[in-house]
Amino acid sequence: MKIGIVCYPSYGGSGVVATELAEALAERGHEVHIISYERPFRLRSFHQNLFLHEVTAVDYPVFKFPPYDLALAGTIYEVARTKGLDLVHAHYAIPHAVSAYLAKAMLAQERNLPLVTTLHGTDITVVGQEPQLYEVVRFSLQASDGVTAVSRALAEEAAGVFGYQQPIEVIYNFVDPEIYRRQFCPARRAFYARPDEKILCHISNFREVKRIPDVLRIFALVNRQVPSRLLLIGDGPERSAAQYLAQELGVLERVHFLGKQEFVVPLLSISDLFLLPSAKESFGLAALEAMACEVPVVTTNTGGLPEVVTDGVTGIIEPVGAVEAMARRAIALLQNEEEHRRMAEAARQQALNRFREKEIVTCYENYYLGILRNT
Ligand code: GMT
User: Residues in domain Glycosyltransferase subfamily 4-like N-terminal (predicted)?
Assistant: First the structure.
């Protein structure tokens, strides 16, 4: 197939999933065209079947806001026409599905361009519910030939909020277990922690929805009972407030702010627990990557997280904001080596059983074939 993949290139789950899907499809012999405003940060390999098309937004003094959505639609149309795309797959509804729909409509005089939209979370649960965007997102779902969601919870929320009647295919996010596997890194571990200390880890874009203050509060409580270090990986609007809070909680010198890191496997490999106490999370790709590296996850019972993490088996699940309960159970787990080992192994096993790249990419291929047959 010739597939166009429209995505965000930036540090965030939807861009990661789209990029890794593009690489895997190219590896399987499909011709894949990534359309984005810059090279995706997760695109690591060269592949002869993989092509990049950077969208350049047109600026002019008359525009207060350069019309990126239109430049994107024009680029999708051009790539579809000149490269003969069989279908276009938009990751994140806003504006990708809308721009792709416009490209589809422009091409309609010549031929049909099937459009698949994958919902990733905040496009539905946050941004898409803003009054001025709600009807646009609703329209983009109706106008897509197929809609997928990264968890059952997200599919249900999308159907409910937007009154979408067609089936939404749930295709989970995935992980390559050969890349995401625990490495033996004693020297790196020794750099961050003494032998008697545990390492807790959090990776995100530091937006409000991630509840960074909860990450720090859980850590501070754990550290009182179990000497520990916290690795904070990523960057975003909540980072400087986090620094103040760490100081206020008296743990600043135990928290390592590492900023955005491209290669997280070596850091997950020295971690004993992963903290993701989000207020909302359609899937929690970072949690899956941690599990694949044998790191149990402490998280909340929101969105798709309970579909990724199994309470008491591969991690700890508590209600949003239940900082004391999360800390209490994290302490018990860190103090019980046997139970921790069991949970770490189960976490890896769950990542392999349910979210292995090979199987999930096949689900996308089959879904595309079904759409091509029916349109
Ligand atoms: O978490 C974010 O704010 C980034 C966002 C994105 O679109 O990149 O992540 C969403 O998509 C990821 C990939 O499907 C999911 O793993 C995240 O759970 C989801 N984030 C939220 O729902 C808050």
Answer: 11-178
